[in-house]
Write a structure and sequence with these properties.
two-stranded antiparallel ribbon, 18 helices, mainly alpha
Length: 488
């Protein structure tokens, strides 16, 4: 069943904020078409008061934090496909077929991520459509909410295009995604053409530019500040998108908006303060809301937390996946004699496996906040772009800021006046700093590098070269079945 068939038949239930229908995103069953939502209300009622409109905006974030999407699985999949982790569990329900690169377009996870992301996009579209015509709230509030919806739409499309389309650097004019920009509230609009990769990126950046214009600098409380989109989040995400495009001048331009020109690198404006957290034990304590958090998914209530198989803690600490001895764990940073504090984020189990301990709440409810955008990433994005554009002094200083926050005495002894040396050092630093946060596969993709082979208790995963058909995930079988315009 098409995601839009499911969604449109049940949209009124989704517009109730906290009350949603439970839908299977795997196998299709015809009786979904016959379901009548228990809590059906009209669009007019759902957007009839400021309080109800705010509820719809808040509910958008719950769509984004779906277990199949940024609430857990999507990040784990991007680590399983990369080379930093080996797999213990050979069961496909824990992503063994993701890790060993054998999952196909009919796989449940391939369909689930697509569906969860497009449900989020459609919810964003419905919000934008209704907000553009409402007179219930003032213009500034309306624009702020539209900015939030465009931010979520942008990051959702960015996640999809990186997962299901060829990398921008490999084929920017190749098949991208269906660019659905209007809300679907009735059935029958399953047939929708696929736009090229470049057009998807253009739309993502347009949404982020609009979001930057409309979003507030800050919110009244710390939790809202990290869990709702603000200007700094839109800017930070643009540095990530432009880095993937290889537009390094634009990365520098955007990063300079929220990173000071000299150390200690920070940002302060309108109630927002950003800087690197000095205490890593605070940063990865489970519910961080400090100045390094640009955009996080919080699980403030146990009922919001992901289930066992979707939670980051359970996957890393049970462990479903453990560090590949040939991956970044072999770096001296994690060695016995290292003075780098990040080695304290690694545990060893009774089997001698090295485990990631960034998400320590390894028991239900799995309420660790999920870092979607951290200030450290922005600094590393800036450092790489500065090196690529010839500003080697700035690049080195930014790189040092991240390394020396964890190891104050570390000094780079290589040829720091050489751009290639710095870029390689930054790549290593990204692997160390951002490990387990869902970046590795996409960092390989943006440079059109093979997905390296690896071994684990679940078997062997072969190297996947960029020209291979399964380098990126296939268009999901459900989309092919119900969208006659989908490429075959």
């Amino acid at each position: 069943m098409s995601v839009f068939s499911i969604f449109s038949k049940n949209i009124k239930g989704y517009l109730l904020g906290g009350s949603v229908l439970v839908l299977s995103l795997g196998a299709c069953q015809n009786n979904y078409l016959e379901l009548t939502p228990v809590n059906t209300i009209s669009d007019a009622a759902a957007f009839s008061t400021p309080e109800k409109i705010l509820s719809q905006v808040r509910s958008l974030y719950s769509r984004f934090s779906s277990e199949s999407f940024y609430g857990g699985r999507y990040l784990v999949f991007n680590e399983q496909r990369g080379d930093e982790f080996s797999q213990n569990d050979g069961n496909n329900s824990t992503g063994a077929n993701v890790w060993n690169q054998s999952i196909s377009g009919s796989g449940d996870f391939v369909n689930a991520v697509w569906n969860a992301a497009y449900l989020t996009i459609n919810y964003s579209n419905i919000l934008i459509d209704n907000l553009e015509t409402t007179s219930v709230i003032d213009e500034a509030t309306r624009n702020r909410y539209i900015g939030e919806a465009k931010f979520i739409r942008a990051i959702s499309y960015f996640s999809l295009v990186q997962t299901y389309a060829r990398p921008y650097a490999q084929n920017s004019e190749g098949t991208g995604l269906p660019l659905r920009l209007k809300g679907e509230t009735s059935g029958g609009n399953n047939d929708f053409g696929f736009s090229p990769v470049s057009a998807v990126y253009t739309q993502i950046l347009k949404d982020l530019d609009d979001a930057e214009t409309f979003l507030p600098e800050s919110y009244a409380d710390a939790l809202s500040g990290i869990s709702r989109a603000r200007k700094a989040a839109a800017i930070a995400l643009k540095t990530r998108v432009y880095l993937v495009k290889g537009d390094y001048q634009k990365v520098v331009q955007e990063a300079a908006k929220i990173v000071s020109s000299s150390a200690p690198y920070s940002y302060k404006s309108g109630g927002t303060e950003l800087n690197l957290e000095g205490d890593l034990s605070v940063l990865f304590s489970g519910n961080y809301t400090g100045n390094e958090a640009i955009f996080y998914i919080p699980f403030a209530l146990p009922s919001e937390a992901p289930g066992l198989q979707s939670s980051l803690a359970a996957n890393y600490l049970s462990p479903v996946i453990y560090f590949n001895t040939n991956g970044i764990i072999a770096d001296p940073v994690f060695g016995e004699t290292s003075t780098d504090k990040r080695k304290n984020l690694i545990r060893e189990n009774a089997s001698g496996q090295k485990l990631l301990n960034k998400f320590p709440k390894n028991a239900a409810p799995f309420t660790d906040y999920i870092p979607v955008i951290r200030y450290a990433e922005v600094i590393l994005n800036y450092a790489e772009a500065a090196a690529q554009t010839g500003d080697l002094a700035t690049s080195l200083n930014l790189l040092k800021a991240v390394r020396n926050r964890s190891d104050a005495n570390y000094s780079y002894t290589g040829d720091t006046a050489n751009a290639a040396f710095l870029i390689a050092a930054i790549e290593t630093e990204r692997r160390i700093e951002l490990v387990g946060e869902g970046f590795r596969t996409h960092d390989l993709f943006r440079k059109v590098l093979p997905l390296p082979g690896k071994v684990g208790n679940a078997g062997t995963a072969p190297e996947i070269k960029p020209a291979a058909e399964n380098y990126v995930w296939a268009i999901p079988s459900n989309e092919l079945a119900y969208n006659k315009l989908a490429p075959r």
